[in-house]
Amino acid sequence: MTDLLGEPDVTILRPGPVVQPADGISQAVLVRVRAGRNKDFDRLVFDFEGPPPGMRVQYVNQLVEDGSGRPIPLRGRAVVQIVIQPAVAHREDGSPTNSGPLPDLTGFAAFRQIADAGDFEGVLTWGIGVAARTGLRGLILTGPSRVAVDVVHAEPGTGNELLRRGSSGAAVATWQWRLVQALGRNIAVDEQFGPITEQATRDFQRDNRLAVDGIVGPNTRAAMVRVLGL
To answer: CATH assignment of 170-228, given 3.40.50.300, 3.40.630.10, 1.10.101.10, 1.10.260.40?
Structure first.
């Protein structure tokens, strides 16, 4: 199950800043912002008219509005800053070229909030509030021109760590999204391991001939990796 809107897949995501140079000097014009979910990462896509712009994506302590320096609070435990240039998001009369609403992030495992932080002197600045500081990747794509930013989902525990009723946080959100994909069921991705998540976990365990206890441990995580082909 995926809703990445036809974007290319990604096999490896690594933490840290990504820097890619602009291809040409003409300004690209932003026409749309969209988001999609994959098996193990979320993607934000900026669609442009004109040549593909350059971009820089990195984690920052706080998103700041370009020009004013005003802090922009974002939901989540970490902040991704995206700087795109040369590019504009307004016409000569000041009206926005991107008239659509920001993407709905309901059900996303990594993304929590998206914010526009500036369109100033040929530089666009955006931010994403994310569930956890995980792997990060930036892509410049052509045909048509696009900039894509991927944030990998937090692992739902490692080693002998357990997720169970009462657990909360980014790891739970990832597990809930994996249950959605594995069971084809509408389960809230809300970071709270409640009775619905517990029952879905039991159902997954039963389907895969595991001990049915509603607790996510090494065997249950390994079965999910096999089922989703992660």
So the answer is: 1.10.101.10
- 3 state SS of 54: strand
Q: Nearest to residue 227, comparing CAs of 204, 206, 211?
A: 204
Residues in the chain: 230
Give me the residue spans of the domains in the chain: 18-152, 170-228
Please state the pTM of the whole predicted model.
0.87
Q: Which residue has the tokens 């039991």?
A: 202
Give yes or no for a contact between 43 and 7, defined as CB atoms under 8 angstroms apart: yes
Q: How far is CA 97 from the centre of its chain?
A: 23
35 and 44 in contact (C-beta within 8 Å)? yes
Structure confidence at residue 112 (pLDDT): 98
Tokens of 194: 């409640």
In words, the CATH class of domain 18-152 is mainly beta
- Tens of pLDDT, residue by residue over 129-182, are 999 999 999 999 988 999 999 999 999 999 999 999 999 999 999 999 999 999
Model confidence at 21, pLDDT cuts 50, 70, 90, reads very low
Residue 213 CA to residue 49 CA, distance in Å, equals 52
Phi, psi (degrees; rounded to nearest 5) at 55? -155, 155
User: By the 8 A CB rule, do 176 and 185 touch?
Assistant: no
Structure tokens at 68: 């004013």
Rg (CA), the chain: 19
Report the alpha-carbon distance of residue 156 to residue 89 in Å, rounded. Answer: 38
